Task: structure prediction
Amino acid sequence: MTRSPLRIPPDRDLSIDFVRAICLPVVVVLHAIQMGIEGDPPRAFNALAEWTPLAWITWIGMIMPTFFIAGGFAGITTWRRLEKRGETAGEYIRVRALRLARPVFLAMLGVLLTLAVMALCGADAEFLRTFAFRLAEPLWFIAVYAICTSFVPLMAALHRRAAGATYFTLAALVVIVDLVPRFGGPPIGALNWLFVWLFVQQLGFGVRDQWYSRRPRWLLLLLAVSAYGLMCVAVFGLGYDPDMIANLNPPTVLLLLLGLAQVYLFTLLQPAIRALMRLRPALLVIGALGMYGMVIYLWHTVAMAIVVGAQQALGLPFPPVLTPTWWITRIPWVLAIIAVLALLCAIVPRIERIWPRERPRTMPLPAAITATVLLVAGVGWVLTQGYLTPGTAAALGTIALAIAWLTVGGPGPNRASEPLEEVTESRNSSDARRL
Result:
């Protein structure tokens, strides 16, 4: 039987799908290994906090800038397509926020349900509190990504009119925010949650416009080495923490430089990645990871909770962290999480289909922004306070309100058009199934 050819939209770059997909296993494995459980009664904590080699591994293994570069590529591609159809910025923000809000709401309910089962089975209350706080930490990406996505129409306009000035302004703001506390000013580092990731997202705009691929390969390599060199200056000369994970909260200029290094290295590797993506096995693997990307990212914490609960129920010990026994047991530990996650990938999409169909109506920009703020506020509360706090119910209610508002849309005219980026992704996934 002749295999049907893969239909790929003309504005889709499979090298972007590749890097987004391969980043997911890195995130899952890192979070799984970071989960330390120790003591009597047990407590959950960051197992790698005292493991010094991790700091230098993160110079290569910290892939969050690549996520935002890929997100910037996808965001400006979607927004430009929407503009050509005559859609509004409010509708773009509505669709993108809804595509984040629905999955994260269900995943948060999944975490709470698992924790409730563990509590009913007699798990220690303080262990559950520390464990629940650790499970909430990956939510930072959802909150920040929702904010950055809502800025895409504005940042795309600035990119079109004054791209260079936009890059330099964002970079200058990042440096200023870093320097103010160092000179006795107020602690304003939280502002870099916006400035750093907007800058890195903007790098994805440059990838979309083929800025970097037009440069000589020797120049790209030189720029990547220079970015890493400036990181060394910041660490050894200015006292920055060499651990890129430590530089996440709040983000610092080191992540900006790492984003630059990664965009140059990605551009160098793009021809090889595109050649790899012409192979059917690679398309199958990347298509599967892309198809279940949101499930993998959001539900790997549920998978960890299920594995921990099963380990406690079976009376299996938790070895002291960083010991030889602990490192050896990380292999079955990670494999168990992957197995549960694979099962969740088969179940969760079916559950997600219970959502009512959204009304295709144009949403005014102020309403779309307000709904996005509600989403970020709800996720942000659980992120900073943990799942097991009195405010969790209110936070989930806030997210549910945002979902209802985004689903209904606004008082504008009916639209016959389909959702934007997700249409492309779902078609690509369907094509992957036919390979």
